[in-house]
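Check the record.
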Amino acid sequence: MQEVRLNNGVRMPAVGFGVYQIPKESTEGLVLEAIETGYRMIDTAASYFNEAEVGRAVRACGLPRESIFVTSKLWVQDYEYEDALKAFDRSLKNLGLDYIDLYLLHKPYGNYYAAWRAIEKLYREGLIRAIGVTSFSSERLQDLFLHNEVKPAVNQLETHPFFQQKAANAWLKEEGIVHEAWAPFAEGLNGIFEHPTLVKIARAHGKGVGAVVLRWLNQRGVVVIPKTVRRLRMEENLRIFDFTLTDDEMKAIALLDTGRSPIYDDMDLPTVKAIGLHRIHD
């Protein structure tokens, strides 16, 4: 498995398995299957409501704990300092683990400064190996680390052929922050798996469109966490290191960028309000 080196020296797999929207009753079995297939990074979150199932799979897989890189995330509801500490403890107990490899602030709303200082404390105590954020604009992310002590190691952003995050990708590289893609397949929108440009490139390499998209991201230095419930797709999503896209193919995919998300607009006030006020527990 190819790895990336985070800014604190921790090594992180370049491809992981995402469990967003996987039902609780299916999660443990699918995570075990993913680990059997060769995945060594699992991405979950408190708001996915399947941390316990992920933890059971990690403990039951038969591999040493240190060989599985586990990511979880703190929800906006728990961004006050003491709430963040309690929420982390709840996630750690749900997972049934002694530490979390990567812990992220899930959205850039609410009192994320207090939340960041709480997870800085947990990081210093060794309960988290690396800390970062999800869906932060470059401006908010820069402001966060300029006024705190620990620089984020990762920014997990919606990134796919239709929303390529070119400026963010370049800036994150300059700052030594790993760019990780959520929704690398655009949640199936815009006909991504039937797009003629991607289909043509996939045929040229004897691969599926999914593998082409993940390899394109990988060649841009972006970590990926695709989700699937099918074993064949798990295997395909992992086999992206035995071919290389040409410069012309990379340029052809670059032309698919629309510069905006097909999933949700994070500048839309009702959307921001709904996310910011969403509660995942009493």
Observations:
- The chain has a mean pLDDT of 97.
- The chain has eleven helices and ten strands.
- The chain has one domain: 3-277.
- Strands lie at 3-5, 11-13, 17-18, 41-43, 69-74, 100-105, 128-134, 154-158, 178-182, 222-224.
